[in-house]
Every structure is written in structure tokens, then in C-alpha cells.
Amino acid sequence: MKQLLYLLIVLAFLPSCSRKILIQDAHQLEDRGDHRNNNPMNDIDIKTSYAGDAFDFITFQVDIVNNSEQTITLDVNDIALMIDVGGDRRRQARPVFKNDILRSLEKEAVLVEQERKSEMARNVIFGGANVVTAILVGNNPADVIFNGSIATTDVMDRNRQYMNVGASIGEQIYYHEEYSLDRAVISPGRDASFDVHFERTLLVARAEMEIYCEGHTYDFDYQLDVREEKVRR
Predict the structure, then answer these.
(1) Of the four listed, 143, 171, 219, 220, which is most buried by Cβ atoms within 10 Å?
(2) What are 69-80's pLDDT values in tens digits?
């Protein structure tokens, strides 16, 4: 659900036409029940699920329950996606760092705001000049004012569009600050849920997510798929 908002935002700004887009899909294969190197006495339970394709990256959700008596740490550097790319060859994908995503979004927010202010300033300057010029050349002042009000409405609509984009970027920043994994400390008896992001591969392949935590490796098998989706606007 958290990624659905971002997907809708992206789709909203696609060109107004019918087009096809590629979506990375994945579904988890049946749990073998034999997590590699996982001591049966280990009281740390980890589960994963595929959360979706947000175009900039794909996202997996990691749920962890600490039933042990020790405080544990989960670090994004201890997670990898091992992708079978043919024969015995495997490609190791490392997560996209949370701070890199946040920096990119913050730069985007600054650029959007700068463009909004620049466009609003241009519209005020040239809009006002056009009204004055129209009256000086003898046009009906009432018509000029009416047309000017229409232009002002267009400017305000454009401004709202910029504000909506800025708000959506702000929502994305909030989401990553709250839910994307960097380094987490989980106290005894507590549980936590985080999102981990990888670059899109657009591959049809088997993959294994490996999570190294407190001396044990947890692995989860996935089938990566690609589907084509038609977008109409």
C-alpha cells in the first residue's frame, strides 16, 4: 500500500495517451522451512514479502520479531538479492541506500519549488504587461480584465499543480524516513517492519533474498517476473 501511492503519482504524470509500461513483479516461492545456518533455537523470526515496483526501484518488506533476550541489530548492508542470470551465474543486487533516496528527493523538491517560483514570476511580469499593452492599444478594458482573469485562473491552476507535486515529494520523503531500512535496533520482545529497495532489473528469473542477522543467514526464494501494463489517460 505504501508503494501504491508512489505508483499513482508516477502514472498521473505520464503523457496523456495510451501506452504500455513494464512492471517488475515477484512472488515468494514456498518456504522450505530450512533457513540456511539458522539455529532451530534461534528466537529471531524474519519474514519477507514483495511490496511492488515504484519505477525508481522495487521494494521488499522485511518483518522481524525479536523473541530473544538480547537486543539485535538489522542493517541494510546485511541484505542482498541473489539473482540467477543463467547457468550457474548469479548476480548480487545490493539495496539502494535510504540516504541516497532521501538526498535525491530533497534535490527534486528544491528544483520543483525553484521552477514554480520562476514560472509564477514570469506569469506575473508578462501577464501584467500584456494587460497594460492591450488597454494602451485601444482594446475594451472590460474584455481585457475578463481575459486577464482567465489567464490568472490558468496561472493559479499551474501553481496548484506545482504544489501538488511538491506535496507528493514530501510524502515520499516522509515514507522513506519512517519505513525504509537503514540501521535498526530491535529490543527484546519487540517486532519491527521495514522496506528494502533494489534497483529494477526487469528480469524473469529465480532470486533469493539473503538476510544476515545475529550470526545466521535467512534466505527467501522468489520468482521474478515482468508484466506489461497498458495505461490509458
Answers:
(1) 220
(2) 999 999 999 999
